[in-house]
């Protein structure tokens, strides 16, 4: 069984930084991640895509409101990804979710795995 485990959330003052981490764990020997994503969901709002990056690291995209402040990165060998969040604002407060999509090479099926979420609170 494959799990995504996030860490790094917490309480930070406006203007501060946090770095979220996500690792794929479990039966991962045949897990081929093609794309990594971070989503977030604030209270009373729909889940939104914050950032995404492809396997090669050649293409990344960001929610307009986080461009220039957040940076997504990944290490395919370690099956990990990160979200560096700088200049945080109160409106960044949300539960952040790690998402990985790709292919199980053992059986040729695609997958779409999600983490349990980590709370980020930006407040003075």
Describe the structure.
There is one protein chain. With 124 residues, this protein is an all-beta fold. The protein is 0% helix and 59% strand. It contains no helices and 11 strands. Strands 2, 4, 5, 6, 9, 10 and 11 form a 7-stranded mixed sheet that branches. A 4-stranded antiparallel sheet has the order 1-3-8-7, with no helix packed on it. Strand 9 and strand 10 form a beta hairpin. It is elongated, with a radius of gyration of 14 Å. The termini are far apart. The relative contact order is 0.31. The model has no long low-confidence stretch (mean pLDDT 95).
Secondary structure elements and pairings:
Layout: E1 2-7, E2 10-12, E3 18-26, E4 31-41, E5 48-54, E6 60-62, E7 70-75, E8 80-85, E9 94-104, E10 109-114, E11 118-122
Q: List SSEs in N-to-C order.
A: EEEEEEEEEEE
Strand count: 11
Distance between the termini: 40 Å
Strand content: over 45%
SS-derived structural category = mainly beta
Shape: elongated
Mean pLDDT figure: 95
Report on the biggest sheet.
Answer: 7 strands, mixed
Short characterization:
The protein has 124 residues and is mostly beta strands. It contains no helices and eleven strands. The chain is elongated, with a radius of gyration of 14 Å.
Notable characteristics:
single chain, 124 residues, mainly beta, seven-stranded mixed sheet, four-stranded antiparallel sheet, 11 strands, elongated
């Amino acid at each position: 069984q494959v799990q995504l485990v996030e860490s790094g959330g917490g309480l930070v003052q406006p203007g501060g930084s946090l770095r979220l981490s996500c690792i794929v764990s479990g039966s991962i020997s045949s897990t081929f991640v093609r794309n990594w994503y971070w989503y977030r969901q604030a209270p009373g709002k729909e889940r939104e895509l914050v950032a995404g990056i492809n396997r090669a690291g050649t293409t990344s995209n960001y929610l307009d409101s986080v461009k220039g402040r957040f940076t997504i990165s990944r290490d395919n060998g370690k099956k990990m990804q990160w979200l560096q969040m700088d200049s945080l604002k109160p409106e960044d407060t949300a539960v952040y979710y790690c998402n990985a999509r790709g292919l199980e090479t053992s059986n040729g099926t695609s997958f779409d795995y999600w983490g349990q979420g980590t709370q980020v609170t930006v407040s003075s």
